[in-house]
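User: Can you help me understand a structure? I only have the sequence.
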Amino acid sequence: MKTIDVVAALIEREGKLLLARRDASSDQAGLWEFPGGKVEAGESQPAALARELHEEMGIMPTVDDFVTTSELQQSARLICLHGWRVSGFTGTITLHCHSEICWVSPADVLSFDLAPADIPLIEAYLAKFAF
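Assistant: Let's start by predicting it. Here is the structure, written out as tokens:
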């Protein structure tokens, strides 16, 4: 079985977290997620997260603490989603891969229709970094 490493950013701002909605052309279209993307060969997870957020949203993040890893099996592949806490960023968010974003209280994130692999990330975040 092929394993794919993916990183996700739990971006904080003024006590809220950024959620991004997958656009219509994406896998799991319409679901909300923590933005990020695939880790390339030889790339560290924080470096991959910085690259992906720059490509997808035009921002450069301050990647801080590792949150947790979530695993999701999809047919013949295993997705390992590694969540990272991001305390800030430079630049202005410009959407290239998402249809919309919103800032949400961490306690309210689970009320959104999240991509399944993102649910364990917010649960671990709430346990480690509760406001």
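Now, to help you interpret it: The radius of gyration is 14 Å. Residues 49 and 105 are 22 Å apart (CA to CA). Let me know which part you'd like to focus on.
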